Amino acid sequence: MKRKTIDDFKRPLFFEDFAELKPFHTKWVTVSPETVMQFAFLTGDENKLHVSDEFAKTTILGKRVAHGRLVVDLLFGILHEMRFWNGSLEALLGVRERFFAPVCLGGMIRYWISIKAIRVSAKYSHAGVVTFRYFVEKNNEGTVSNTNVSSGEFEVLVRRRQCSAEEPRQS
């Protein structure tokens, strides 16, 4: 089976498409101070490390950094923007992550994504389970190298192609 790039697929992607998908990376995104403040407000995680320049200056990092979960959660917004599974995603089943380096405000990050496993759902005949591996890298300004920020896996339930949004679910 010939594997395809993300650009070879019509969107949204369905369960059957993931067996053919080559690993890919997203565009670079900037983690802005505004995004960090919005995340802090929405989650209630207003730790001074994320929201106070004065406090952050006294830490080992010396400046404010993004929430680790924000860095991971931005991936789902980017996938939505790409129309990756708009209309085919049924559920997020789990996320596991590890953090290796901070992302400072104004930092640029991108995501590398690959398929770890796919299987037909035993519970829902209209869908399958896809496990993704990802890692996040940040751009190190002024250097030719990037730094691995975090990595992990997430698992989703995705509709099979023959089960469009208009058709009744078959279980």
Walkthrough of the structure:
The chain is of the alpha+beta class. It has a domain at 8-31 and 66-159: Thiol Ester Dehydrase, Chain A, CATH 3.10.129.10. The chain has four helices and six strands. The chain has helices at residues 33-43, 48-51, 53-57, 68-81; strands at residues 24-25, 29-30, 89-99, 108-120, 127-139, 146-159. The longest helix is centred in the middle third of the chain and has 14 residues, at 68-81. The chain starts with 23 loop residues before the first strand and ends in a 12-residue tail after the last strand.
Provide the residue-averaged pLDDT: 91
Q: Rg, please?
A: 18 Å
Instruction: Count the beta strands.
Output: 6
The arrangement of helices and strands along the chain is: EEHHHHEEEE
How much beta, percentage-wise?
25-35%
Overall geometry = elongated
| CATH homologous superfamily descriptor of the domain at 8-31 and 66-159 | Hotdog Thioesterase
Give the helix tally: 4
- Helix % is 10-25%
How would a crystallographer describe the biggest sheet? Answer: 6 strands, antiparallel
Gap from first CA to last CA: 29 Å
The level 1 CATH classification of the domain at 8-31 and 66-159 is: Alpha Beta
State the CATH architecture of the domain at 8-31 and 66-159: Roll
What class, by secondary structure content?
alpha+beta
Q: Low-confidence spans: pLDDT under 50, at least 5 residues?
A: 167-171
Protein name: MaoC-like domain-containing protein
Pfam families: MaoC_dehydratas (PF01575)
Domain MaoC-like: 23-121
